[in-house]
Design goal:
Layout: H1 3-13, H2 23-38, H3 51-58, E1 67-71, E2 78-79, E3 82-83, E4 86-90, H4 94-104, H5 108-114, E5 117-119, E6 140-143, H6 162-170, E7 174-175, H7 176-180, E8 186-188
Helix pairs in contact: 2-6
């Protein structure tokens, strides 16, 4: 992102718009997004990231009986340039992800993000670890992977639009980019 784009985010989250994304900006961003998440009107329990909470909310990792096919036909979701008709997602996450996708499909930034869908359900371990990924429960989605990779700093070198992060947050989904300043492609339904 440009310095001006970073300053715009900083002004929105209530910190000094100086273009430097350090601890103060990260803390202000987390607080701002937590407020959005806390105002989520979805009555679904949003679990913490420990394995017991995740299993209680989403079932065992890799349990495909917990998945549903979310119809995204006509929403502009594309994978490697090809239209996507359905996304396999955890049934507990499906209603909120449906609202997110439909809302994103109405904005220019959202349309760009959806046109670069990079996956949802994938029964695998977390990168660099042995615990199951949130993808293994169908409770995570990746967008714009080419320019928001795991090691890319957000927002200095990654370019996930902040408006996309806000849409996810107000529906109870956490952005790793905004919370750990990397892996901005990744959104998960956790606290």
């Amino acid at each position: 992102m440009t310095n001006e784009q970073i300053k715009a985010i900083q002004a929105k989250i209530g910190t000094e718009p100086d273009g430097f994304w350090g601890e103060k900006s990260i803390s202000a961003c987390k607080s701002y997004l937590r407020r959005l998440m806390d105002s989520c009107d979805d009555s679904l329990y949003i679990p913490r990231t420990d394995q017991n909470s995740l299993t209680a909310a989403y079932g065992l990792a890799g349990d495909e009986s917990e998945l549903v096919n979310l119809d995204v036909h006509g929403c502009g979701v594309r994978y490697e340039g090809q239209p996507v008709k359905t996304i396999r997602v955890n049934k507990a996450c499906s209603p909120s992800l449906n609202r997110i996708i439909r809302e994103l499909a109405t904005t220019p930034e959202g349309k760009i993000a959806l046109s670069q869908f990079a996956g949802c359900y994938n029964n695998r371990a977390m990168r660099g670890g042995s615990l199951p990924s949130l993808h293994a429960r169908g409770a995570a989605i990746d967008l714009m992977a080419a320019t928001n990779r795991n090691k890319q700093h957000y927002p200095s070198s990654a370019d996930m639009p902040f408006s996309v992060i806000e849409v996810f947050a107000k529906h109870g989904w956490l952005s790793l980019g905004a919370f750990i300043s990397r892996d901005a492609m990744h959104f998960q339904r956790t606290k």
